[in-house]
Design brief:
With 121 residues, the protein is an alpha+beta fold. It has a single domain, classed as Arc Repressor Mutant, subunit A, CATH 1.10.10.10. Helix content is 50%, strand content 21%. Helix 1 runs parallel beside helix 4 and helix 2 packs parallel to helix 5. It is globular. The termini are far apart. 23% of the residues are buried.
Length: 121
């Protein structure tokens, strides 16, 4: 029997499901989608599982982009885009597929889509 904590996590598996249908996404976007589909978790937990997924090669860093704007903390924000890695085993969960299809059709406008998705639940 193995010692220590198990490497499998339901939260990370759900993140992999989201990335499987999105193809790529950044942390905040993934957290918002996650909390609409699954029971609510903190952003900190999402970011932890993204980093852990990168270590386990279930998730890979796709690109790192800097976006300029007028933010409360400054003028530049760094977005790390993730996609699924070689060790990922997506199961093809139906509710994630439905949400991501609507998300892609809405032109990636998360705010409008969330309202529509909540009404259809």
């Amino acid at each position: 029997m193995k010692r220590g904590r198990p490497t499998h996590s339901p939260i990370r598996q759900n993140i992999i499901e989201i990335l499987f249908y999105l193809k790529k996404g950044y942390g905040y976007q993934i957290a918002k989608i996650y909390n609409e589909i699954f029971p609510t978790v903190t952003q900190r937990s999402i970011y932890y599982h993204l980093r852990k997924g990168v270590q386990l090669k279930e998730i890979v860093v796709h690109t790192i982009e800097q976006e300029e704007g007028n933010f409360s903390w400054g003028t530049i924000v760094e977005k790390i885009y993730y996609s699924i890695g070689e060790n990922a085993q997506p199961r093809g969960e139906k509710r994630v597929e439905v949400f991501c299809k609507q998300f892609n059709r809405s032109g990636n406008r998360l705010t409008r889509l969330v309202g529509k998705f909540r009404k259809s639940k």
